[in-house]
Structure formats: structure tokens, C-alpha cells
Amino acid sequence: MNNERIDIFGVPVDVVDFPRALATVDDILRGDGGGFIAAVNPEKIMRARDDARLLQALKSAKLLIPDGIGVVWAARWLGLGCPSRVPGADLMPAICEIGAAQGRNVFLFGASPEVNEKVARILPERHPGLRIAGFQHGYVREPDMPRLVADINASRAEILFVALGSPRQEFWMMQHAPELSVKVCQGVGGSFDVIAGKVRRAPALFRRMHLEWFYRLAREPQRLRRQAELPKFAWRVMREKWANRSGVAMN
Ligand code: UDP
Q1: Mean pLDDT for all residues in the chain
Q2: Hey, where are the domains in the chain?
Q3: Residue nearest (by alpha carbon) to ligand 1 atom 20
Q4: From the CA of 164, how far away is ligand 1's center (Å)?
Q5: pLDDT per position as a tens digit, 193-248
Q6: Per mean pLDDT, which range of 7-16, 142-151, 224-233 is the poorest?
Q7: Ligand 1 centroid vs 189 CA: distance in angstroms?
Q8: How far does the centroid of ligand 1 lie from the alpha carbon of residue 101, in Å?
């Protein structure tokens, strides 16, 4: 399944909604090749503009989900396309459902040892039929990476979730995807911490109002520096829109 790929300030994102993203995953799982899934949000777009390696990692992803409402808004407002929001934290359980229904093997890589083990216990309870082929916490030293890759391949996992936070997980997926025999690999950021109950996701009301980012900021004020990119992104989108209207080119 080929999705339309647009770019926002030079950073790619796929024009998908949730069902389409899931159908793409199903397609990859049933096909011969493989690929990784990365989430795109305004923060990552701003970062990738100055970070060639992150941009390269995103460009090599098979599926780039529009994970932030800011991305959806920018794409629509700039007339680039009409994606809908596909939160990575919701896509992961949906992939687990597909995995359970198809009896797929899953490998979990990332987060602290306690969180990682807990997620390995919780997921098959939540998704009966899902097989955990292996799990590994996210504090592996670089010299031990080849062993981890060999372990993942030996586990015959077809689905791999990588929870190292961004951009670490995008770099890891770009670097190791060619050596991995998994079919689908998703970068899931802090999702393991949420599943293990260490971090709470925003209540449904915040999620419905697209204010998840605000909830996270209120609970983890240390994220302020990262989220300071949001108003800069919004400002850039507005400038671009005005420039388009008046026919002035922007870089
Ligand atoms: N983490 C890891 N290895 C590292 C650094 C971070 O496994 O070397 C994990 C960390 O334990 C946490 C996740 O990566 O579970 C980062 O979560 P965060 O919410 O910061 O990620 P985001 O979704 O914001 O990218």
C-alpha cells in the first residue's frame, strides 16, 4: 500500500488516518519486505530541520504517522493534504491486536528493566494470542548492540517495539533496520512507561480536545524546553501561509 507522502518544511509525513495506517501495517506484515514506523510531531519537524541525521532517519521510514495535532493542522492549513491524527500510543495496541489475531511474535526493546519486564507480562494479558518472543531494557551499551540484534533475529520476532525516546529510537531503527529480520518495527517513545503504569496518559477529555501535550507539560515541566518548539512551529506555519497568499517565497 503506497501512501501519499507530503513534506512540511522539508520533513516528510504520510497522509494517513488511523484505519489507513493500520492497513499499511497489516500490508507490511503480510508482505515480503519490512520497514519501520516513526511518529512525526511538530517538535520532531523543528528538530529535523537542523538535524540531518534525524531527517535521514525519518526519510527512511516505511510509515510516518502524523502524531501531533499540530502536524494535521499544518498539513491542512497549508493545503498540503488531509491527514488525520494517528497517535503512536494508540497505534501500538492496535498493532498488538493484529499481532494477537495473526499469532505474531513480538519483541520489546526499551525503557527501564522493571518497566520492560512489566510490559512483557501485561501485553499478552491485554491481547490474548500475542506471543512475546523476547524483551530487552533500553540501556544496552553500544558494544552489546550486535548481540541484541542477533537475539532479536533469533527470537523470530515479526513485530518489534522500540521505546528509547526520540530521536534515539529513530537513529537506532535507521541504523539497525537493514540487519533485522522483523517485518514491522515501531518507535513508541515513552509508551512502555504508560503501559507499565509509571506515567499516566492524559485523561480522555484532554485527548479529545487535542490537549495531551498540555497535560504532559503540566505533569512534567522539565519538558518545557522541548515544547517551546511548538509556538515556533505554529508561527512558521502562519508565516508560510501568509507568504503563500502574497506569493513570497520562504526558506
Ligand atoms: N530510554 C531508554 N534508553 C535510553 C534512554 C531512554 O530505554 O538510553 C527510555 C526511557 O526509559 C523512557 C523512554 O525511553 O521509557 C523515553 O520516554 P519519553 O517519554 O522521553 O519519550 P518521547 O515519547 O517523549 O520521545
Answers
A1: 93
A2: 5-205
A3: 165
A4: 4
A5: 999 999 888 888 888 888 888 888 888 887 777 778 888 999 999 999 888 877 65
A6: 224-233
A7: 6
A8: 29
Question: Which atom in ligand 1 lies closest to the alpha carbon of residue 166?
Answer: 25
For the four alpha carbons of 55, 188, 168 and 149, in that order, the dihedral sign comes to: negative
How remote is the CA of residue 129 from the centroid of ligand 1, in Å? 27
Residue 226 CA to residue 149 CA, distance in Å, equals 30
pTM, to two decimals: 0.93
Closest CA to 29 of 99, 130, 115, 123: 99
Ligand 1 and 235: CB distance under 6 A: no
| Confidence check: pLDDT of 251 > 50 | no
Ligand 1 atom closest to the CA of 199, numbered from 1: 19
The tens digit of pLDDT for each residue in 64-119 reads 999 988 999 999 999 999 999 999 999 999 999 999 999 999 999 999 999 999 99
User: Could you tell me if the CB of 110 is within 6 A of ligand 1?
Assistant: yes
CATH match of 5-205 with 3.40.50: yes
DSSP secondary structure of 188-217: -TTHHHHHTTSSPPPPHHHHHTT-HHHHHH
Among the atoms of ligand 1, which is closest to the Cα of residue 110? 7
| Burial (CB count within 10 angstroms: exposed 0-12, middle 13-18, buried 19+), residue 229 | middle
In this structure, the residue with its CA closest to atom 11 of ligand 1 is 111
